[in-house]
Write a structure and sequence with these properties.
The protein is of the alpha+beta class. It is about 40% helix and about 25% strand. InterPro entries: Thioredoxin-like_sf.
Amino acid sequence: MKYSVIKFSSEDCGTCHKMSHYDSKVSNELECEFINVVLQETQVYRKYRRILLKQYPNKEGMGWPTYLIVSNPEEEFTIKGEIKGGMQKGDFRSKLKAIISK
């Protein structure tokens, strides 16, 4: 099964910016599609908002950034798991690998 890693972040989030140096690379290494959704980019945000709101109906409890690991993001999607907040590259890789290999 091919998964998509959808990153929900904000332009003014320092942690989100720091993780952008490696999050897409790690996702691609693990054969996942990487989708970057910056909340200020309304057109992209609108496209993926339904996925975010399924996990966080009122956006309470989100981390910055929040990564949702999803199958079929364009259609009838299923949320496989999530990764929240900032972390080192190795930790991000381990957490993502654990989710996609379940």
